[in-house]
Design brief:
3-stranded antiparallel sheet, mainly alpha, Glyco_hydro_88, two-stranded antiparallel sheet, Glycoside hydrolase family 88 protein, binds glycine, chondroitin hydrolase activity, 6hp_glycosidase-like_sf, UG_Glycosaminoglycan_Hydrolase
């Protein structure tokens, strides 16, 4: 039987998360959390990964959930680290500026008017638009600009674009929105197959700008649907609709969401690639939390549009996904030997057909912890999004 997360369970889950985050604070105030745990524990690292914005994001969420200033204070310390990172251009030659600077610095600016946070996030937005390729109309994800083996974008970038909508609002400069819209158009035109599954990465022709082919890096194979890629698409499209009011984005959101939900196993914890629907392959619980956030985002839009039935439908499905994670993946605050919030995430699983470096299989993953807590806080009803 499919059940929904209750309010009592939501509060219990927040209590667990805040307790674990509080316990982790001494270790990760001047150090960041690594991308994923190894045997349940996050290694403390410098601010060099694409994922280091998630832990400060968790601190802001913990602050909102608990009203305890200690979390805001620690999150404020990270703002300086993020300003230094973008000023010194440390490990920012890629597109993940939104993942890095939205939960750390846009959140800090929204909640505390921290001027350094605004400065850092705007510099990150400038860095992001500097990766726009006119030929093909996309933001290049990885590698040296124009490199033949990296003339492509990836579906994940949909979550980097809200930083550009924010930058447009802050500065009044339309270039940020224009690039976000052009990239979205290219992504929608190429990344989805007729059944609304998605390609992880997509190559464009460097000379003509024409679409070339879909490929995978972290999915099982080129024509399967990597669970997290599909999840980034779900949440990214819901956000794109909020920032633009473009109805076709919301229509596509529904189809892409349907595909995700149809491929879930009975226990509703996604396999790492949606090609798997049963058996012993590792799961990626983080995809469930990301999709739950996307559903809650879209539910707000439907409600504003007066489409109450759809708002109810997506809230209900979000609560079902969260209930599954609560029952089978949530770390309890008194559990020993583990310092993440959610088990059974997968960062990169090697397959015979993909090109990823294996990492973090069946572990806690930094964004899995973050989106779990974002979904829980969102469900409370008063959260103002920084995406
Ligand atoms: N954006 C990289 C990932 O989701 O693993």
């Amino acid at each position: 039987m499919i059940r929904e997360l209750t309010e009592k369970e939501r509060l219990d889950a927040i209590d667990n998360a805040v307790a674990i985050i509080r316990r982790n604070l001494p270790e990760y105030t001047y150090k960041c959390q690594d991308t994923n745990t190894v045997d349940g524990i996050y290694k403390p690292i410098d601010n060099i990964e694409w994922t280091t914005g998630f832990w400060p994001g968790e601190l802001w969420l913990a602050y909102l959930a608990s009203d305890d200033e200690v979390f805001a204070h620690a999150a404020g310390i990270f703002v300086e680290s993020f300003l230094e990172r973008i000023k010194k251009h440390i490990a920012v030659d890629h597109h993940d500026m939104g993942f890095l600077y939205t939960p750390s610095c846009v959140a800090a600016y929204m909640l505390t008017h921290n001027a350094h946070a605004r400065e850092a996030a705007l510099m990150a937005a400038d860095n992001l638009i500097s990766r726009f390729q006119e030929k093909g109309q996309f933001i290049q994800a990885w590698g040296a600009m124009g490199a033949d083996d990296n003339y492509r974008y990836i579906i994940d970038c949909m979550l980097n674009l809200p930083l550009l909508y924010w930058a447009e609002k802050e500065t009044g400069k339309s270039i940020y929105r224009e690039i976000a819209l052009k990239h979205t158009k290219t992504c929608i035109a190429n990344s989805f197959r007729p059944d609304y599954s998605s390609f992880h990465t997509f190559f464009m022709n460097k000379e003509t700008g024409e679409p070339v082919r879909g490929e995978t890096c972290q999915g099982y194979k080129a024509d399967s649907s990597w669970a997290r890629g599909q999840a980034w698409a779900v949440y990214g499209l819901a956000l794109a609709y909020r920032h633009t009011g473009e109805k076709s984005y919301l229509d596509l959101f529904e189809h892409v969401s349907d595909y995700f939900m149809e491929k879930l196993p009975e226990d509703m914890i996604p396999y790492w690639d949606l090609i798997f629907t049963s058996g012993d392959e590792p799961r990626d619980s983080s995809s469930g939390s990301i999709v739950a956030c996307g559903f809650l985002e879209a539910a707000d839009s439907y409600e504003k549009n007066g489409e109450y039935e759809k708002a109810r439908k997506y809230r209900k499905m979000a609560k079902e996904l969260l209930k599954a994670i609560y029952d089978t993946c949530m770390v309890k605050k008194d559990e020993e030997g583990i310092n993440g919030l959610v088990k059974h995430g997968t960062y990169s699983k090697k397959s015979p057909y993909n090109t990823c470096t294996p990492a973090g299989v069946d572990e806690c993953v930094s964004w899995g912890d973050y989106y779990w807590l974002e979904a829980l806080v969102r469900l409370g009803g008063s959260w103002k999004s920084w995406w």
